[in-house]
Each structure stands twice: as C-alpha cells, then as structure tokens.
Amino acid sequence: MITPTRRCHAPHLGAGLALALRLSRTHPAYRRPEDIATAKSLLAVLNADDQGPWVLSPEQLDVLTRAMDVRNARLPSTARQHPDFDAAIRAAHTRSRPPRAT
To answer: Is residue 100 classed as helix, strand or coil in its secondary structure?
Structure first.
C-alpha cells in the first residue's frame, strides 16, 4: 500500500505517467500493449483519487517506476520534488517482485 501524505503526490505521479505515455511513440517506456493499458488505468485512478491510500498491483508499480525513470531522465529537477515518496514506490516495486531462483 502506498500512502501519500500530501495531495501533490497524485499529480506528481500522474505527470510522470502522462509524460511516459506521450513519449511512448518515440521513446517507448512501455513496449507491451498491456503495459500501456495499465499505465492509462493507473493515471485514471490517480486523477480520481488524489489522497490515497493506494493499493497498487505489481504491474502498476512496474509501469509507475518506468514512468519515474522517464521523468528522471527528461525532467530531473521535477523528479526531485518528492524523493522520499519516490523511494517508497521503488521499494514497494522491489518487494513486489518474485524472488530470483539461485
């Protein structure tokens, strides 16, 4: 569960998703149609609920972290607006991945 502490987190994340979707034709962050669909549905959730808490699936966390990577590369100053919240999302994404077989 991702629990934002301020209303600015949803617009911050939504802006990253919107940017990644806009750039997907020339610099695809999402190569699979299902990833694009997941990103679009997550953007709709963030637009509808700016306060959370949000329970995000591993797929949603994956597209969100890829959007954060795009935003960090394109707009580094805006990517640093909420580093603690971004770090919490990346940590949740890491925890959501299945353990690797050794």
So the answer is: coil
